[in-house]
Design goal:
The protein is mostly helical. The chain has a domain at 1-30. It contains one helix and no strands.
Length: 64
């Protein structure tokens, strides 16, 4: 009886493997989803708070 159960378990694993292979094949046929250009690029300029302005250090450079 143990041999029969082992064979049934192996048959189930083979069927699962065949199903997985079919799904992978279908995925290859459909191809990889293409990314849209907006996925990696910013949609516009950064918010005003993120726009850092350069400050002058002129008043700290005192020459004697």
């Amino acid at each position: 009886m143990a041999v029969l159960k082992l064979n049934v378990d192996n048959a189930i694993l083979l069927l699962i493997g065949a199903e997985g292979t079919r799904l992978l094949r279908e995925k290859r046929v459909k191809g990889r989803p293409r990314r849209s250009d907006s996925d990696e690029e910013a949609s516009g300029p950064p918010a005003e708070s993120e726009c850092l302005q350069r400050k002058s250090t002129e008043k700290y450079n005192i020459t004697k």
